Amino acid sequence: MAAPVPETSRASGAGDPLDPTDPPALRRALGRFATGVTVITTVGPEGGPLGFTANSFNSVSLDPPLILWSLSRSSQRLGAYRGASHYAVNILTADQEGIARQFASQAEDRFTKVEWRPGLGGAPVLEGALAVFECAHEAVYPAGDHELFIGRVMRAQARQGRPLTYFGGGFGTVMGEVEPE
After folding, report:
1. Is the pTM of this model over 0.90?
2. HEC string of the chain?
3. What is the CATH number of the domain that holds 136?
4. What is the extent of the structural domain holding 86?
């Protein structure tokens, strides 16, 4: 069991306490965590490609190979992702900020001028992505104002490059290129 943190811990540089029930304050604090940027894609009920920008991606398990991402319960595409048999998590490179912005927009056809190919189950795989995880839908769980999706990785690819990152409400990258193992 961890020891309680004394009140004087504020001097450690952690910042002022905030009210976790204040969504804007909590969002600002969560924005202090740098994340990678993904576009999560699938095939919609009418057979067309769907996708959105997300930074809510995480590995869950290596055996079996599982990943996790989340989608807002208010998303108009929630039903399509719940009903999808497959989806792809496309990790973007530093030079794909335009793609991240396009898939974060309210544009009707977010795939305009984006090169992609159909992956497993038809889920779009974006050309030039730093890594792609093609997944079979494993499970979905309610979690507050979002739903958590668990995907079983059926196929993955990775290439050398610099990742697109998101921090404090803006896009960036890390220095140096990461070479896949």
Report:
1. no
2. CCCCCCHHHHHHCCCCCCCCCCHHHHHHHHCCCCEECEEEEEECCCCCEEEEEECCEEEEEECCEEEEEEEECCCCCHHHHHHCCEEEEEECEHHHHHHHHHHHCCCCCCCCCCCEEECHHHCEEECCCCEEEEEEEEEEEEECCEEEEEEEEEEEEECCECEEEEECCEEEECCCCECCC
3. 2.30.110.10
4. 35-165
